Amino acid sequence: MKGNTTHNNIRLWNVANLALFICAVFCLRYYIINTTDSSVICLIMNLTIVISIIGLIAYLVDGYTRPQNTITAPPSININSDSTLTEPISKDDAELIRQTEEENRRRKEEQWAEIASYTKATFHKIFTPAQIEILLNNNIKELTGDENYMAVETSINRHLKSDDLLHFGWNVSKRLLSGTQKKLGVTTALFLKKSFPMTLSGYDIGNIPSKLRVENFKVLPLINPPEPLVPYVFPDTENLPVLA
Questions:
Q1: Are the beta carbons of 222 and 171 closer than 8 angstroms?
Q2: Residue 152's closest CA among 120, 127, 124, 173?
Q3: Tell me: the pLDDT tens digits for 106-126?
Q4: Which residue, 26, 5, 8, is CA-closest to 16?
Q5: What pLDDT band is residue 2 in, cutting at 50, 70 and 90?
Q6: CA–CA distance, 31 with 25 (Å, rounded to integer)
Q7: What DSSP assignment string belongs to 13-58?
Q8: What is the spatial distance between Cα 162 and Cα 199, in angstroms, rounded to a whole number?
Q9: How far, in Å, CA of 109 to CA of 10, rounded?
Q10: With contact defined as beta carbons under 8 Å apart, do 182 and 209 qualify?
Q11: How far apart are CA 1 and CA 72, in angstroms?
């Protein structure tokens, strides 16, 4: 439709110009006839007018009788989406995904069970069950969360050294945290400082990361993955009762 409108506008413009030309020739003929007696010039002017009128009539007849070309829309392009993106997951692939997710879930559960068993068996003569509950289910679980840590200690325990806690923090965070060594150290430092503010009162959060892995064979040992977490028995606590 837009193409037809443009074509009509051009045709009308040409007709208007040709009509204006004819009018101009008529005016010029009238002027020449009044100012000269030359029959030759009058003949030329008459011929010019006749030829112009014939041309105008022919142009109009041709324009209105010729079939007008219509501009059709380009053929639609069927863009097929990538079959690899829309193809439904096969039963085999779905089963593989399910098995992978199940395996990851199982590994996390086993990892948490190992950490919980290690923590309870290591501190059962140092902290009460309520304190161990705070350490495990609030602080260690928040190690990768919002860091809403609670203080575990209520008093100083003479069997507990700062290096024991630093090594314990490393053993746990190494299994639960991912990322750079710097991020692991800073996160672990905050967890330890908030959980054990009394034993670690002489430490700032900023200097704990560099001391997490300092070797000290007289304290709770460092246990790097994939070695299993073996509970530690604090010296001189062998004959002490389990705290209730």
A1: yes
A2: 127
A3: 999 999 999 999 999 999 999
A4: 8
A5: very low
A6: 10
A7: HHHHHHHHHHHHHHHHHHHHHHH---HHHHHHHHHHHHHHHHHHHH
A8: 6
A9: 81
A10: yes
A11: 9
Arithmetic mean of pLDDT, 121-138:
97
The two tokens of residue 78 are: 């069927």
Instruction: Determine the Cα–Cα distance for residues 243 and 130; give it in Å rounded to an integer.
Output: 10
Per residue in 208-217, pLDDT tens?
Answer: 999 999 999 9
CB count, 10 Å around CB of 171?
A: 25
The kind and range of the H/E element at 101 are helix 91-123
**C-alpha span between 109 and 103 (Å, rounded):** 10
Mean pLDDT in residue range 112-141: 97
CA angle 61, 63, 65 (to 5 degrees): 65
Rounded mean pLDDT of the chain?
83
Are 9 and 15 spatial neighbours (Cβ–Cβ below 8 Å)? no
Give the pTM: 0.62
Q: What kind and span of H or E run contains 170? A: helix 162-176
Reported as a single tens digit per residue, the pLDDT across 19-72 is 766 777 667 666 666 666 667 777 776 777 777 777 767 766 666 666 555 445
d(CA 141, CA 237): 28
